[in-house]
Amino acid sequence: MTQIEKNKVVSIHYTGTLEDGTVFDSSEGKEPLEFIFGVGQIIPGLEEGIDGLKVGEKKKIENISPDKAYGPKLEEAMQEVPKSQLPEDLDVQVGMQLAAQGPQGPIPVVIAEIKEESVVVDFNHPLAGKTLTFEVEVIALRDADQSELDHGHVHGEDGHHPEH
Ligand code: ZN
Questions:
Q1: For the chain, how many structural domains are there in total?
Q2: Looking at the structure, do residues 58 and 134 belong to the same domain, yes or no?
């Protein structure tokens, strides 16, 4: 019987929750998440948790620590930005989410602190430092083909992939 192992293309439905039960992400109502197992496409804690599961199996993977998820919150990812560099009409508030321009497109950042002349912007991943729980259901499994393994990602049924 086929089970989840290295170089399988895995499709799962999943719901991710924080320690207080808040859902931060879910595939509910969407296409299942599809990825190659064992190549680091998903967080290590989730990969370890679903290892060996078969199609149709469900599992709750609880309390994945930050080091097996999105890493710790880094102090150096907190940056002070002069207020003069923000849009003038912006009413900044702590906790407000903004999009900063990154090399590969906009990245979400959060206003962590407001000072007299500047604001402290948190560039950490929104899930950095968080302990996560995932409920997953395995929808499908197949062997990855050679071009998918070469590229490190899943290709569509027609071999098309939009990334490159
Ligand atoms: Zn590709």
A1: 2
A2: yes
